[in-house]
Amino acid sequence: MASTSTETPRTALTWKLVPAALVSVSGVLLFGIENNPLGYGVLAVALLAAAFIDRALLRHLVLVAAGMVIISLVPLNADLSIQHMALMGGALALAVLVPWLVSRFVYGESIIRFPVNTGRKWPLTAKLYLIGVAALGYFILPVYLISTGVYQNWPNPSDPTIFWRLFLGVNAVGIWDELFFICTTFTLLRQHFPDWLANILQAVVFSSFLWEIGYQAWGPLLTFPFALLQGYTFRLTKSFTYVVTVHLIFDFVLFLALVHAHNPDWLPIFLY
């Protein structure tokens, strides 16, 4: 369906939302439900619909879809064997590199960027927000992990090797989340939708991915708002460095909470 001169902006946006929403739904199927055949089918329908509705949108949805398909090809769990870490790490790296390379060198765009040094100092509110993130993680994460038992989705870090691999894995995935979901998916969707809508669309896929990683039970009530806040924070700060700092602070508390959940006597610093 090509745009016409009589088509209102709202109507055009509604039509464009159909394939974009289907891409988000495919994320739920691929990562939340782990039904790859159905997820791929919905993804294919989304791209076919975009081809008829808006070719520019199609080009960008193809990039998001490519990353999603790549990461769907490997098990997304906390297996900390060297083989699995290498396999998953390679897939996650390709899921970011492929969209960036195609966008930059095939499409000739510079939309996907990872702004590290913005040249702007973080204001006091930004610094206070980091403290707030740490405080929320401290009070929420132990209760969530232990009361639901989902801490068992991660291996017991009582062995020194597993301890450091868990620390590395938690932080590496946290950085990747911001590279793919915020700097890639959210940024591409913003070219076609209002920021609030693009943020919701990316947050659906973001929280679905985290579900498969291990944030289950009532985890989406935690991860979906977090994904929305990360998108909103990136829009405000335009800084990859800042959103990664937020994420790594939260993940550091997560790591400590996981150690505490598996070995309560190790870190008697939590209230739960």
Portion in beta strands: under 5%
Tell me the distance between the termini: 55 Å
Question: What is the typical, i.e. mean, pLDDT?
Answer: 95
Task: Tell me about the largest β-sheet.
Answer: none
Number of separate domains: 1
Radius of gyration: 19 Å
> What is the chains' assembly state?
single chain
- H/I helix tally: 9
Number of strands: 0
Low-confidence stretches: 1-5
Q: Structural class, from secondary structure content?
A: mainly alpha
Q: Give the overall shape.
A: globular
Share of helical residues: over 70%
Series of secondary-structure elements, N-terminal to C-terminal: HHHHHHHHH
Concise description?
With 272 residues, this protein is mainly alpha-helical. It is 74% helix and 0% strand. The protein has helices at residues 9-32, 36-53, 55-72, 82-106, 124-148, 160-189, 195-213, 220-237, 240-262.
Describe what this molecule looks like in 3D:
With 272 residues, the protein is mainly α. The protein has one domain. It contains nine helices and no strands. It has helices spanning 9-32, 36-53, 55-72, 82-106, 124-148, 160-189, 195-213, 220-237, 240-262. Helix 1 (9-32) packs parallel to helix 7 (195-213), helix 6 (160-189) packs antiparallel against helix 7 and helix 7 packs across helix 8 (220-237). It starts with 8 loop residues before the first helix and ends in a 10-residue tail after the last helix. Residues 1-5 have low confidence and may be disordered.
